[in-house]
Amino acid sequence: MCKPETNNNKWQDLGWMGLKVQKEKLGSGSGSGSGRSRMKLWMIRATTSVLLWTCIVQLTAISDLWGPRVLKGWPSCFTHDSVSNSRAMDVQLQSLRPPLLPPKRVYKNNGYLMVSCNGGLNQMRAAICDMVAIARYLNVTLIVPELDKASFWADPSEFQDIFDVDHFITSLRDEVRILKELPPRLKLKVERGFLYSMPPISWSDISYYKNQILPLIQKYKVVHLNRTDARLANNGLPLEIQKLRCRVNFSALRFTSQIEELGRKVIRLLRKNGPFLVLHLRYEMDMLAFSGCTQGCNSDEVDELTRMRYAYPWWKEKIINSDLKRRDGLCPLTPEETALTLRALDIDQNIQIYIAAGEIYGGERRTSSLSKEYPKLVRKETLLEPSDLRYFQNHSSQMAALDYLVSLESDIFVPTYDGNMAKVVAGHRRYLGFKKTILLNRKLLVGLIDQYYDGVLNWDQFSSAVKKSHAHRMGNPSKRLVILDKPKEEDYFYSNPEECLEPSNDLLSST
Fold first, then answer.
1. What is the CA radius of gyration of the chain?
2. Could you read off the pLDDT of 433-471 as tens digits, one per residue?
3. How far is the C-alpha of 406 from the C-alpha of 278, rounded, in Å?
């Protein structure tokens, strides 16, 4: 420990020597001279104090500037712990400072837009991005979107239960004004039933909203759009609109701190054991009932799925030929088909596979072939303690948000069906640097699988055909498919938001 050497007698001699001389001089003068001398003494002391404080401040500044280079290695009375505590205090003070916010955009407000999203998490996520872009273009105030609570999942979650609502509002304040609720006068009017509500036309160009929706907002002051999925076109929009859709998706829509923290915990647990693949195995009961895909199901399961399909009146298609739909590539791959495909693509059998999905229909009986080929099969329920997931139980969108975060961070992402999560995650992974995402060609795959099972192809021929057909389906740069007058058949904007992606040295290839 560094300890300054002191000699009290020495300091007393030096400290009072000058004062003793001053006293002798003062004693030889008159009374008035004594007053003037006391004044001089006071001035000397005051000046000395100012000089000392100035020197201390200067030395502090010099030590900050030169300390790391000049004073390094000098003995110090400051321990490493005191420096660490000082730095920790600096970090804490920085965290207490308010975040830097973008300046508010100043514009004449044309009215208020309320929206009710429909569908699952990622369907609603894309819709929110569209509605922000529309509100910005129309110069209207957007009310924080209402999430779907009447879908199959019946998730009661509000926007703020899934997304960081304050971040959503403040991070976009330079583009659009967003409020948590209507101003009191308009809120009271809406509560009394005075509200113009309508579903906008699907895949509409931005001019539709300017020519058809804006006049309604100006007339009624508040307009409610009650269905928002796929209501904005994929292509043919101004560049600033496309970039704003990306900004909302990749920056403004941040999950709550509870979801983010638990997502990071799952990723840490997976990373401890090496690389991992996320398999979005879309083989849940609702998916099979809706699509009518019953490959590998027994007769009781087929009956159960059919009854479920008829129980939901908004599922319009009732009589479905499962075999025909599968051959057209419109069914999710079964767990058995998935295991065969992963093997054919030479996916390491020792890699961890995280299943990002709900409960697999048929349970262990249907996943046995997959777990036999890939024994390191895990789910959030097996990685986490029940207490970790207690808050998220019966909240399917919040559970899907966890899977979303893990999917973004995986070394490989493989969806077995091109639903909304598969599309949005694939696009987000492109944005993060074209991370490996295997986009399966189901129509081709089921044909090859049937030929392999029938003995037409041996294993090497089958594996070679699968690898060759997917060589350019790994999330690499590609042009978004545009089909004039057939927007539903185009590539989805959120699966390949190429206007927002960093240029790549690789040549863009068409898929």
1. 34
2. 999 999 999 999 999 999 999 999 999 999 999 999 999
3. 8
